[in-house]
Amino acid sequence: SDIGSQRERVVTEEEWIQKWEMGNIGFHKEQRHPLLQKYLDVLLNGRSGLRIFFPLCGKAVEMKWLADMGHSVVGVEVSEQAVKDFFSEHSLPYCEEPVSEISGAKVFQSTSGNISLYCCSIYDLSSLIVGKFDAVWDRGALVAVNPCDRQRYASLMISLMEKNSSYLLVTVSYDPNKHKGPPFYVPESEVKSLFG
């Protein structure tokens, strides 16, 4: 699969943090994603009270929507600004605690207890820290991960999934020679080789 000049492209965590601080967040959507609404039944698969994971969550509005349905939402985001914005924009009270297993990491938890957002590198997480999930909503994570880190990312996602998890993934399709990314182009063949 030809991903053009993107194969070597690297965006650092500091660059992502800076995007949030500068308000350069065109990737954030104020409305619920239409594909999540369309395929919600596939993600939930008739189940209620699920643990749903949001990798590289930003301040995704879908987190509150799913929590309001009675699900438990866990996200991870490198930008503390994004995490705090999520809680303030939804007027949700929260508490903030250090994550003892990860140096410098914090977890922000809604006082209702059904939303927990980890502020750290996604690669510092493991199922020992966050547990396993019944569902994953990946709207902008795989396409934001540096191409050289995709295998590491996919392996982590698989390790966080329960046996009968649902994984809903959104990618973008375009000519990777005309756009340097992110979002990065991830061909369907690569999605299949990463996730089976």
Automatic annotation (TrEMBL):
Record-linked SUPFAM superfamilies: S-adenosyl-L-methionine-dependent methyltransferases
Annotated Gene Ontology cellular component terms: cytoplasm
Membrane spanning stretches: none
Pfam assignment, any one: TPMT
Top EC class of this enzyme: transferase
Coiled-coil stretches noted in the UniProt entry, renumbered to this chain: none
InterPro entries: SAM-dependent_MTases_sf, Thiopurine_S-MeTrfase, TPMT
Reaction equation(s) it catalyzes: S-adenosyl-L-methionine + a thiopurine = S-adenosyl-L-homocysteine + a thiopurine S-methylether
Family according to the record: Belongs to the class I-like SAM-binding methyltransferase superfamily. TPMT family.
Stated name of the protein: thiopurine S-methyltransferase
Gene name of this polypeptide: Tpmt
